[in-house]
Amino acid sequence: MSSSPRPEKGLGFLLADVSRLLRRDFDRRVRDLGMTQAQWRALAHLSRDEGINQTTLAERLEIKPITLTRLIDRMQASGWVRREADPSDRRSIRLFLTPRSKPILDELQNRADSTLTALTIGISLADRHQLIATLEQLKLNLIAAEKAADALTQQGKEDNVRQQSQAS
Fold first, then answer.
1. What three-state secondary structure class fits 8?
2. Phi-psi region for residue 122, left (φ > 0), alpha (ψ -120 to 50) or beta?
């Protein structure tokens, strides 16, 4: 007995496939600029959140901090980014774009626009707006679920510590 198809079935795989294909298409479009995917992704994140610290950027890019350090070393040598010590935390390094990164970011935006045009062929403006709203809601749902899970984990740790201290 087969169950009726659910729209959610395969949603995660579909989102992952679209994301992978989108990155691959954009990577192909910027290859002649001599940039790696890691470099253009880091620049894109920095352009949205300039002054971010290295640890947070590594988390957003889902790479190890040492990998990001090497990446930033190369980007700094190319003159695209600069590092500054965080005035409120000596151990933290904040990242900023340099004026030299402006032309490359403009070119990346032009090529991103071409990728998005190819991505949305045959999709009405209203459907694109609805898709964005739906994806934003999915993101909010996952953020809320993660916070709830983190709170439960923290509560469990506190309960465990309390039980251990009562036992001693």
1. coil
2. left
For the stretch 3-32, pLDDT in tens is: 656 666 788 999 999 999 999 999 999 999
Q: Which of 131, 108, 107, 105 is nearest to 119 (CA)?
A: 131
Q: What is the pTM (predicted TM-score) of this model?
A: 0.71
Contact 73, 40 (CB under 8 A): no
pLDDT given for residue 59 in this prediction: 95
**Which of left, alpha, beta for 93 (phi over 0: left; psi -120 to 50: alpha)?**
beta
Please, which residues bridge with residue 53 across strands?
94
Helix, strand, coil % in the chain, rounded to nearest 5: 70, 10, 20
